[in-house]
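Human: Not sure, check this?
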Amino acid sequence: MRWVITELEAGSAIMTARGIGDPTAAASVSSAYVRVGKALEGGDPSSLAEPVRREAREIVSVIDGGVEAVRFETAESDATVRSLEEAFASGDVSEAPAPQPVAYGGVTGRVQTLSSRGGLRFTLYDTLFDRAVSCYLAEGQEEIMRDVWGRTAVVEGLVTRDRATGRAQVIRGVRGVTVVREAEPDAYLASRGLLRRDPAGRSPEEVVRELRSA
């Protein structure tokens, strides 16, 4: 297989690769890639062959004070590794890690990246944390993304959240994308003159100050 980097987002350090060649082989590699991530997430690298284990260690070795985690993600599943030491602890795991919280919901953010290669996928930067959220559409849903790129929208679907922070990470099975109407930069000026003259002779600034302090 030959793999091509189709997306590289510096702000969130997200790299997306696409396999060139046999689709069946690409799907097999993609599945194996997530199995590697889940083995490290569960602290059980002993299930991996030595060459794979060696390369996997190199990937997660970037985790430090600046990089808090490494996520292995495909359209079907994902795994998050937060510590090199925990990932390669001993291979003797007493209990499996708690699954990532998944529930139907909606996330509001700005649609920044849209890709239709090998399946329709887009990146949403959520308004709460300003972090990238990977969103996956089902086949035939291309129409709901018309004129959405670069706009703020609410994306609904099965939301996978980080178990440590609660941040949305992935939205699969997207059911709907609703564009949020954004206020114009000078919209606040429309409120001028709404406050009537105060009978006591107080200025608008004094009335607002008193209301704010109440």
